[in-house]
Design brief:
This protein has about 625 residues and is of the alpha+beta class. It contains 17 helices and 20 strands.
């Protein structure tokens, strides 16, 4: 595939569904975007009409529910996202002689390259589409009878099982290669990852249409030949048809229920997703799963969850392996793990539903979180896995052992806190339930640090909001003047925005996804350990605690190794690496090591249970929370 490996599903919008990827050749205008200013724009358009220069780029076209995204092979060229709601026209492209020559150099087979004898063969003939009335039409946006007939023909049997012409055919017969030639006129496009650098997304208006040659694989037994037409019969939706259905009509942006076709609530989109997933579920399982040595225990739809990304796919459990295949056609990321490599399986609550399960593996700190369709599906998988003696599936029995070992000093404070977070359904795969750890130190200004001095530590018996007497007095006064429900703190000690506030340098794409394609304002970004501690301990609207990265690793999240452009403060200072306390000696690794030694110190070991009571114990709610000034907004 012509992929540079830059694309990830983090580049999609919230609730956007990824359908598939296609190798493609794009003829992009030069320059892609016009100069700024109305006069410059008009002059540039006039010049483009008289002599439209274009540059050829190979790459991959990703088709999604709200956009099409072109990922060029050349990393110097930005990834281009075309929002479907900004598309004015989507029509066939008829290349001129120069463009045909450039396309042939990339291996594109054009209609003019096919001999008359070969045209009779479905494997080389260009595809056309036949509506329910029998008239041919090009795959373009239209509000006429062709579109209605096409939608009925393709979506009418979305609930039926795919037959001979489904994706399953790809596993048995060589597919037919077909090239879609199309042009997209869009009012606006978005560029991302230019020169493979993670920076804020740029919105711009292209002067000329974007031209694409899209490679499409058609199952060999999904076509029927007659004198004039090759008809699609239960075939996977061709790229141009899929985009057409998603657009519905370039002039009519709303469907009958008033929802845009690219909206997550659109009935049309739900039908497309249902047909797409039914076809994927009909694919034969991996060869190893169907061999005589494997017995399939259960199968079905599941979602692989990672920070800010949900990947739907097919989950398959055998007596020896776990398989997961994403529904994204052509997308990499298939999981195949032997059960002997699984160390621990734990039930998880995801978005307040007990329908998730997390797998931890031997020799790895990483884990995988799967979300199932219902509690019943999750129970079935859990029943099969919990019966295996080598898996640590009983968290409560394991919890008793770890607590006893911690009390005896055989388990560190860090690992004990991480296990408590796990028991509370917190996971590194879920930013909304990310593990939370306390601020330990209160001195971030001294040149040296004496960990035997109790004065350098934070009071672990109090929540962050109660550490400063003046702030607490203001909050209590406001609390007594409130109507129900009353609360002291309107923000939480842990939230997705708080986690990515700390991880902006090591997880920039997640930050861009959370903040709508841009980084947060420079003055609000994570710049200094000392300033952040001061803000969290004094500001009325900031009571966040820390994350595990402050106590484990080498502190890579504190260093701007990717040279991200995080902005300039009002004081004119460029945001780069995080300013460390003087006692860290300018080393992020030393800062983490000192923080970890402080966590494991005798001063903290004697009081850490008080903080656990505030976050996970009897002081997190009810009367205990009121007495401890630990009341958060419900």
């Amino acid at each position: 595939a012509w992929s540079s490996g830059r694309f990830t599903t983090l580049l999609l919008q919230h609730n956007e569904y990824y359908f598939r990827r296609h190798d493609a050749v794009a003829m992009l205008p030069l320059p892609l975007f016009p100069p700024r200013g109305e006069q410059c724009l008009a002059e540039h358009k006039d010049a483009a009409r008289s002599h439209p220069p274009r540059e050829r780029h190979t790459g991959v076209l990703h088709v999604c529910s709200q956009s099409v995204i072109f990922e060029p092979t050349d990393i110097a060229v930005p990834i281009i996202r075309v929002p479907l709601e900004q598309v004015q026209r989507f029509t066939p492209w008829h290349p001129d002689a120069g463009q045909c020559s450039m396309l042939r150099e990339c291996g594109v087979i054009l209609d003019s390259d096919v001999s008359s004898s070969a045209r009779r063969s479905p494997s080389t003939r260009p595809r056309s589409y036949e509506s329910s009335t029998g008239s041919q039409a090009s795959p373009k946006s239209s509000s006429g009878s062709w579109f209605s007939g096409l939608k009925t023909q393709i979506l009418g049997n979305s609930r039926s099982s795919p037959k001979a012409g489904s994706f399953e055919s790809l596993a048995h017969r060589p597919p037919i290669i077909h090239w879609d030639l199309c042009q997209i006129d869009s009012e606006q496009v978005v560029t991302m990852l230019e020169r493979n650098k993670c920076h804020r997304n740029v919105n711009a208006t292209p002067v000329q249409p974007l031209l694409f040659a899209i490679k499409h694989l058609v199952p060999a037994d999904s076509v029927e030949e007659d004198d004039n037409t090759v008809m699609a019969r239960e075939a996977p939706l061709e790229c141009s048809v899929l985009i057409t259905l998603l657009m519905s009509d370039a002039t009519v942006k709303l469907d009958a229920r008033g929802a845009a076709p690219w909206s997550p609530v659109s009935p049309l989109l739900r039908q497309l997703i249902t047909k797409h997933e039914c076809a994927c579920l009909a694919l034969p399982p991996p060869a190893i799963a169907t061999s005589g040595n494997h017995r399939v225990l259960c199968r079905g739809r599941a979602i692989r969850v990672s920070p800010l990304v949900e990947t739907p796919g097919r989950f398959l459990l055998t007596d020896k392996n776990i398989f997961f295949r994403p529904f994204c056609v052509g997308e990499e990321g298939e999981d195949q793990v032997a059960l002997t490599h699984v160390l621990r399986v734990a039930r998880r609550r995801y978005q307040l539903q007990n329908t998730a399960m997390e797998f931890s593996f031997k020799g790895s700190s990483a884990s995988v979180l799967y979300l199932f369709q219902s509690c019943t599906d999750c129970d079935v998988v859990w029943k099969h896995l919990s019966s295996r003696s080598h898996l640590q599936a009983d968290e409560w029995r394991e919890w008793e052992k770890i607590r006893a070992a911690w009390q005896a000093g055989a388990v560190s404070n860090y690992h004990y806190l991480m296990h408590i977070n796990s028991m509370a359904d917190r996971s590194l795969n879920d930013l909304a339930q990310y593990p939370v750890l306390p601020w330990i130190l209160a001195d971030y200004t001294s040149e040296t640090l004496d960990l035997d001095d109790e004065r350098v530590y934070r009071d672990l018996s109090k929540p962050m909001g109660a550490l400063n007497h003046d702030r607490l007095a203001r909050l209590v006064t406001r609390y007594h003047g409130m109507s129900r429900p009353k609360f002291l703190y309107g923000t939480h000690y842990s939230a997705p925005a708080h986690v990515l506030y700390f991880l902006v340098r090591s997880a920039p794409q997640q930050c861009l996804r959370l903040h709508g394609g841009k980084f947060d304002l420079a003055d609000r970004s994570f710049q200094s350990i000392s300033d952040t501690w001061h803000q969290c301990s004094t500001h009325d609207a900031d009571v966040k605690e820390l994350i595990p990265e402050f106590f484990n690793g080498k502190g890579d999240f504190l260093v701007n190794r990717s040279s991200l452009e995080l902005g300039v403060t009002q004081e004119g200072r460029h945001v780069h690496d995080v300013q460390l306390p003087p006692w860290a000696g300018g080393s992020a690794a030393q800062f983490i090591a000192t923080n970890r030694r402080a966590l494991e110190s005798s001063c903290v070991s004697g009081d850490i249970h008080l903080w656990i009571d505030l976050i996970f114990g009897h002081k997190q709610r009810g009367q205990g929370a009121k007495i401890a000034f630990n009341v958060f907004h419900p």
